[in-house]
Amino acid sequence: MYQKSISPILVLLVCLISVVPAAFSQDRMDALQEYRQGNFQAAVHICTTEIRENPSNMDSYAVLCWSLVALGKYDEAAAYSAQGRTVNRYDPRIVEVLGESRFYQGRNEEALKLFQEYVTLAPEGGRIDSVYYFMGEIYARLGRYRHADISLSTAVRYAPANSKWWTRLGYAREKANDNRHAVGAYEKAISIDPQSVDAQRGLERTRAALNLRQQR
User: How many CB atoms are located within 10 Å of the residue 119 CB?
Assistant: First the structure.
């Protein structure tokens, strides 16, 4: 029975059609993988290339900005985040990382509004624990220690094994003159990390303050 031969050119075209999208997908996967492995500069290179090819690629904006923050390049991260928001204003990943950028730039009020927006957009989002931590730090910077207590208490509910955050919660409570609950937070921090010098010193201060109060 006669069978019509398939053109080698047609075979080549079919192969290219199937391989090229996979290659682009692999590039996108590589950017996130590089970020997760701590190769932030490599992730930046991949993502900036992707954005040049597709300026509406929100995944690339997200990984790019995470990587820039990790590198301490907060001005660049803020610029790219703002650019990403012109594409999709309500992508919670971009809202959050712009908030981080503003936090590290010391632009507290802007950062706080962005973190509050993230909580509205993604109340159970992947960065919700860190968002509440950053909000607590901002409130502490502003001297609003009761608000800092609330935010940091929420943060440690999401991340109960984070000794640093328990220490910061103890500090916020201490500054709010709530030494009794500050002791509890410092003790929790030390139970997680017995080597935490900040928690140990905070516990000593607050216990001394409580003892002095009882002696009066």
Answer: 19
